[in-house]
Amino acid sequence: MEKINLVIEKALGTVSRETVFGLQDKAAKGMEQLHQGTGQGNDFLGWLNLPSEISDADLTEIETAARNLQSRCEIVVVIGIGGSYLGAKAVIEAMSNGFEHLRKQHNAPIVLFAGQNIGEDYLYELQDLLTDKQFGIVVISKSGTTTEPAIAFRLLKEQLEKQVGKEEAGCRIIAVTDAAKGALRKLADTEGYKTFVIADNVGGRFSVLTPVGLLPIAIAGFDIRALVAGACDMQKACGADVPFEQNPAMLYAATRNALYQAGKKTEILVNFNPKLHYFAEWWKQLYGESEGKEHLGIFPAAVDFTTDLHSMGQWIQEGERTIFETVLSVKEMQHKVTIPTDSDNLDGLNYLAGKRVDEVNKMAELGTQIAHVDGGVPNIKIEIPALTERYLGQLIYFFEKACGISGYILDVNPFNQPGVEAYKRNMFALLNKPGYEAESKAIRERL
Ligand code: PA5
User: Fold this and answer.
1) CA 288 to CA 148: how far, in whole Å?
2) Do residues 294 and 399 both lie within one domain?
3) pLDDT average, residue stretch 165-180
4) Pocket test for ligand 1, best of 142, 185, 413, 420 (most atoms within 8 A of CB)
5) Lining residues, ligand 1, CB within 6 Å
6) How many Å apart are CA 130 and CA 137, to the nearest integer?
7) CB 3.0 to 4.6 Å from 219: which of 36, 66, 386, 403, for a disulfide?
8) Dist. CA 303–CA 312, nearest whole Å
9) How many other CB atoms are found less than 10 A from the CB of residue 270?
10) 377 lies in which domain range?
């Protein structure tokens, strides 16, 4: 089976091969900490062997639940935020026809998202759209207590029950949450919803290969078995028994840390394919929440090229030299579009006639790489044979494994996110949530 391929040569200039290989021992230690469970956050390592541990029965249960919703619904709203949102969104966007929602016929329900913001207009417009639609809901929250999805679920549950009655609504709602804890678990058990469990030892941003990601992806009509098979490919390729120089997760983790130590504080994940926009959003959460702590960590940013070459391109080419790029380079497109000849050639484009659009894109990619490397921006490339479930599964596991190793090289706990609580405490205090009386008083005195 062909695999995604990591290329670090164009990053070697700012840092030498010796410097990257100088982190070999730290990467090996990180690998050992992951596999022996001896590092910080070792109660959140359930993702490590997840691909090979998912059983056929697990996948069948997810596919069956997905088929049930597919048969009842034209739209399924997936409610969740952060790790309970981004993985599914990333894979569905990468695999979908970009104009699917505007087509008249669909092979599977349109999957929409809610609870990933508290936008009143967003919720109004979504509810307005759903008034004359057959819709269902997948509500996802590991803690079962997160405010954003809880608000969206309260609204959409009420709407669904009004539109189809409580009994049918109960058949169209699936909850993915903790086995025992949290308000969502209590609610789901009381209402008798179908539920899937998120294991205690899998953190939100590492949960795309659990029902959190797999259920919405299956509902959208994509092959979750191929996705998991791809993750299995990388579980092997990034295994503890694979030497450093052949182990993409260790090499990527070491290269980005070497660049960070050399003053490259921002990593920009670049794509030349708009379908990967949300994959970058998933990646930003994975690395941002895992490494950004103790006043350390590479800042994960993302751009869509060539679109952003016309906005951020100037900064990347000539701004402060504190950045490096990691490019997601997709080899084969799914479709062919050839540039036509025009007898008048008023636009001067006949020199491109007969070429595929992707050939132009690939030359833009190569030209950009040369320009940015010349401009002092080190370049890591990840070659992806095509946008398929299998290669996306490979990419997901590769980034997860590298993230664990990279966090340990940095010497932080890659599996917690204590900083996420600060805004919540203030918000609850400002909203006078019961139990926050002292915080409410204190914060009001500061206003
Ligand atoms: O990575 C994380 O843990 C977070 O981003 C969570 O996924 C996010 O806050 C949502 O939490 P929950 O699934 O408990 O609603």
Assistant:
1) 20
2) yes
3) 97
4) 142
5) 81-84, 141-143, 146, 149, 203-205, 289, 417
6) 11
7) 66
8) 8
9) 29
10) 5-41+231-414
